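Recall that a protein's primary structure is simply its ordered list of amino acids. Everything else, from secondary elements to tertiary packing, is in principle encoded there. The following example makes that idea concrete.
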Amino acid sequence: MQTHCSDCGGKGEVIDKKDRCNGCNGKKTMDEEKVIEVHVDKGMNEGQRITFSGEGDQAPGITPGDIVVILKLKPDDGGLFERNGEDLIMSKKINLLESLTGFEFTINHLDDRVLVIKTKPGEVTTPGQIRVIPDEGMPKHKNPFVKGNLYIKINVEFPASFSLTEEQIQNLSKALPAKNVIGSLPMEHEEFFAEPFDENKHARNSKSSRQEAYAEDEEDGGRTQTCVHQ
């Protein structure tokens, strides 16, 4: 019969009690806590690795492994900026007056600087337009003096429907180019009010119409016959 030695545990080596280390009690390894400082360079991005060679678990006769730190990008606490490589992207709402006559606002940047962002006098900003502030993005890795750009997507808030008074409408008519006015119309004509598109409302109606058409087609046998005159 063969069995493991109760003294060495099958390792073929026994350390005399008087020679055993008080810390590991002859196991040759012991757990310890070690603080490793991880230095993240400016401009490093998500997924980049920082390796500490030989800082892994150690054992007699075995080369220690490495500790590998993989960076995970933390979202902006204020929810203002979104990173895209070396560029920063943000959205900004302005009202219709600012869109037509110019705007100005401040940004608290990631490095605690306050930036004043504004347009030139008389410059018009259209909805969805993207403005760029050069060299105000993220620093380039290993070359922090070179930075990406800050892109600002402009969203224009229009006044609510029926919120303008007649006087305000007249003043706007004087300040803005004249709107299109229809001339003479035929005696018979039809008028429609263009509704704002509602995906749920209008898509459902379209789908319902298609289902009704399919149902009628199935009631007729699902087949259309053409009469041929002779």
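The mean pLDDT is 83. The helical segments are 96-101, 166-175, 199-219.
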